[in-house]
Specification:
The chain is of the alpha+beta class. The protein has nine helices and eight strands. A hairpin with a 2-residue loop joins strand 2 and strand 3. Helix 7 crosses helix 8 and helix 8 packs antiparallel against helix 9. The protein is rod-shaped and about 180 Å long.
Length: 324
């Protein structure tokens, strides 16, 4: 009985192993390559799959999700003979599990070497400054070449990124000095522009202030002249309305003479010619009110040699030289 039990146990174990090999569960976003006697048969997709045990075998399980692979820094020579180290990151996805298994031995290594050679070709046609400022251009060119080359491997390169571009230390020092000089230059230019704008605004303000001040003075002068003209017209109208005679005019002339002579700066003053006639009239008026009453035995302003004192003094003042 024992040999039979042992055989039954062996059969149960074989059946269990056969069931395990027959039922294959493939996770989501994965694929498996099935080979029969070493030859590709089919690709198992996600879910429950049945294979022939001991005849069919699972060659490879492939993840169909997008993969991210960073590559170590690669030395690349630019067009101006400078060596820079460039770190790259590749985002790829397996679209054909069979091609990725049988068309290339190791698609990761193949992508890395293809990236290095393509990157050297692209950077070799650029100088350092353009290399540092043309990441998008480099990424697009690198992705185009990789996507075309990896298509037959069942790989789709979705994105290529340059993680870092490191020039030599001496070049970095020179670039820092240049950037510092550029910043100082821009600061000086901005400061000069600020001073210039400030001076322009100040000049504009002074100009507007001068214009407004001149306009105010002109209006004030016009109003002042208009007021003086109105005062003169009022006085003139008042004189004509009062019918002033020769005696009143002579008296006004005599009152104005001291004011004309006032001031230390008056070196020369002119007596109007009409003041003589006015003084003659005033002398005649004073003669009419003299002690004789008749004016015949008093002084006669018209008599030669006996002119009125006022007239003579006025005449003398007209003829005397300027007082220093």
């Amino acid at each position: 009985m024992q040999p039979i039990i042992i055989v039954l146990i062996i059969l149960v174990v074989l059946v269990f192993i056969a069931l395990v090999k027959t039922i294959q569960v493939i996770p989501q976003a994965s694929a498996a390559i099935v080979e029969r006697f070493g030859r590709y048969t089919r690709t198992l997709n996600a879910g429950l799959n049945i294979v022939v045990p001991f005849i069919d075998s699972i060659r490879n399980r492939i993840d169909l999700r997008e993969q991210v692979v960073p590559f170590p820094p690669q030395p690349v020579i630019t067009q101006d003979n400078l060596v820079v180290n460039i770190d790259t990151v590749i985002y790829y996805q397996v679209t054909d599990a069979r091609a990725a298994t049988y068309e290339v031995a190791s698609y990761i290594q193949a992508i890395e070497q293809l990236t290095v050679t393509t990157l050297r070709n692209i950077i070799g046609g650029m100088d350092l400054e353009r290399t540092l400022t043309s990441r998008e251009e480099i990424n697009a060119a690198l992705r185009g070449v990789l996507d075309e080359a990896t298509g037959k491997w069942g790989i789709r390169v979705n994105r290529v990124e340059l993680k870092a571009i490191e020039p030599p230390t001496s070049i970095q020092d020179s670039m820092e000095k240049q950037m510092r000089a550029d910043r100082d230059k821009r600061a000086a230019i901005l400061q000069a522009e600020g001073v210039r704008q400030s001076e322009i605004l100040r000049a504009e303000g002074e100009k507007q202030s001068s214009i407004l001040r001149a306009e105010g003075e002109a209006k004030a002068a016009a109003l002042r002249a208009e007021g003086e003209a109105q005062a003169i017209r009022t006085v003139f109208e008042s004189i004509h309305a009062g019918d002033a005679d020769q005696k009143l005019l002579a008296y006004q002339y005599l009152q104005m003479l001291p004011k004309i002579a006032e001031g230390d700066a008056n070196k020369l003053w002119i007596v109007p010619s009409e003041i003589g006639d006015a003084l003659k009239g005033l002398s005649g008026a004073m003669g009419n009110f003299g002690p004789m009453g008749g004016g015949s035995s008093g002084f006669n302003p018209q008599a030669p040699g006996k002119g009125a004192p006022g007239a003579d003094s006025a005449k003398d003042r007209r003829e005397q030289p300027p007082i220093d």
